[in-house]
Amino acid sequence: MTFPNAALAACRAVIPASVSALVLVVVSAQLPAVAGLALVAAVVAGTTLLRCGVGEGIASRVLHGARAPTQVEAVVLGPAMTLLCGAALGPPLVRVRVQPRNLGLLAQPWGHATVVVPRGLVLAVFHGRVRHEQAAANLAHAAGTCRSGATGGLPAMALWCLPWLLLEEIVTVAGRGMRSSPMLRLAWHTRFVVAAIAVAQNVLGGRLWLAAVVAGIAAATYTQPALNRSWHRRVLAVGDGGVIDAGLGRPYAAMLVTSDHVIGLERLGQLTGKSGP
Q1: I want to staple 207 with a disulfide (CB 3.0 to 4.6 A). Which of 4, 202, 225, 232 is the partner?
Q2: Which residues cross the membrane (predicted)?
Q3: Domain range for residue 102?
């Protein structure tokens, strides 16, 4: 039995949302009463609006630096947008936003109806490195994912979980340093041993709450990455299904190859229709 997308997304959000809620409570408690209540109300209201699909454009601008396409960019993407509309996945069902500083090639779904396009894709189409059909398939993958509802909660989660996202960035930077140190890598891979010892010491000392916290943090370092990987695979599968249904599977496979994206043979076969014997 397949785990529902919504349930998987909810499980993935439990730890980040809980940690961020704790940070919000602690920070608001340190502020004057009125300021603390205003902060909580603003975050809750903003999260609710984004979950309902209101303000996605503003959120994509603030969090991704994405903006509406310029006139020139719109002309370059015009043929691809025409093909996208022919597949019933174009505007006004979705809105396209461009990331000026992103030189990648793959468009990303954002929320209920926003497709974030890297400027690198626009430049690649302009210079002829990416065909219009490939660009359309690229946009269709992101648009189909949006329309499925799989990424509808991303903007709301991004706002509510800002503290967690900052923590993830810190851990990512620290992780780069770990790669150059064999001892640090070993310590990270055997962290369950350190956690088990810490839990046992706290239990023997009667600090059950602290033992539970340590155990929870240790478990989160394993479960959260696994949930993230599962969710990202599910989102990719949803998008792949959308481009296949739109008859754009082969162009999208070519787009992935052009972007130097690592793609497994099974996925490539599904996109190109060559998965059979």
Answers
A1: 202
A2: 31-54
A3: 1-174+182-276
Query: pLDDT band at 1, cuts 50/70/90?
Result: very low
Radius of gyration of the chain (CA): 22
Q: What is the pLDDT of residues 107-125, one digit of tens each?
A: 999 999 999 999 999 999 9
Convert the pLDDT of each residue in 146-203 to its tens digit.
999 889 999 999 999 999 988 888 877 777 777 777 877 787 788 889 899 999 999 9
What is the dihedral sign for C-alpha 138, 143, 145, 146?
A: positive
d(CA 193, CA 169) in angstroms, rounded, equals 25
Task: State pTM to two decimals.
Answer: 0.86
Q: How far apart, in whole angstroms, are the C-alpha atoms of residue 48 and residue 272?
A: 40
Q: What one-character-per-residue DSSP string does the chain give?
A: -PPPHHHHHHHHHHHHHHHHHHHHHHHHHHS-HHHHHHHHHHHHHHHHHHHTTTTHHHHHHHHH--BPPPHHHHHHHHHHHHHHHHTT-STTSSEEEEETT------EEETTTEEEEEHHHHHHHHTTSS-HHHHHHHHHHHHHHHHHTTTTTHHHHHHHTHHHHHHHHHHHHHHHHHTT-HHHHHHHHTHHHHHHHHHHHHHHTT-HHHHHHHHHHHHHHHHHHHHHHHHHHHHHHHHHHHHHHTT-HHHHHHHHHHTT----HHHHHHHHT----
Residues shown for the chain? 277
CB 66 within 8 A of CB 98: yes
- The token pair that represents 108 in the structure block: 């990303």
Q: Which tokens belong to 27?
A: 């920070």
